[in-house]
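Ticket #4471: structure export looks truncated?
Reporter: QA, pipeline team
Priority: medium

Steps to reproduce: submit the single chain below to the structure queue and open the exported record.
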Amino acid sequence: MAGQVDFSPSIGSDCPICGRPDCYREITPYWRYAIELFPELRKEKIPIARFLCRKREDTFSLLPIQLIPYFQYTVGAVIGTLLLALQYRQMGQQGCLGASTGVDQESSVTPWLIACWLTVVLRGLRRGHRSLVGLYDLSAIRIRQETLPWEEVTVYLMVFGFRPLAPWTPAGGVTRRLLYRYSHATAQFLFGTPSQSRSLRVLLSP
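Actual output as written to the record:
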């Protein structure tokens, strides 16, 4: 059909739910918000491709790589805000509080939300460390029992090529490179907990 997108290169010929060849079919997509914060606030709804396993009559989705499962804010927004928080910390201020005031006030980003993002990003980096070693030189990362979360995340981000930024200086290129390299090597999300870790219902769209 003209204009129809071929998702098979991303999904493969076998159904990710039941494993049978040519079992799944595309169904009506759903829409979800994607919120960017850098260089300015942008909030838009984007379609998410959805598929049905004919055998089990269950569905799965193909999530774009720039999104985090179950997050409205994009990876770029999350990483950019953490980098902004690092900038405030280097100036001797409270990072989460400073970053929450440094982004657009219409974004509803709070210090508590930034602290949650720190936890999600750190968890993803720790989980993906073994794979990231093959993509980056992580020899500078020496995690000790007394290492604080902000210190640990800072070392990771510096290794990847990120630097603390001002609100008007997005780090989109570095973010995309990190995501693409990791997902290409592992076919997994670096950040967040997708439902495929429980039921294989969400796949990564490179």
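Status: closed, not a bug. The export was complete when the record was re-opened. Leaving a note from the reviewer for reference: The chain has two domains: 8-71+193-205, 75-186.
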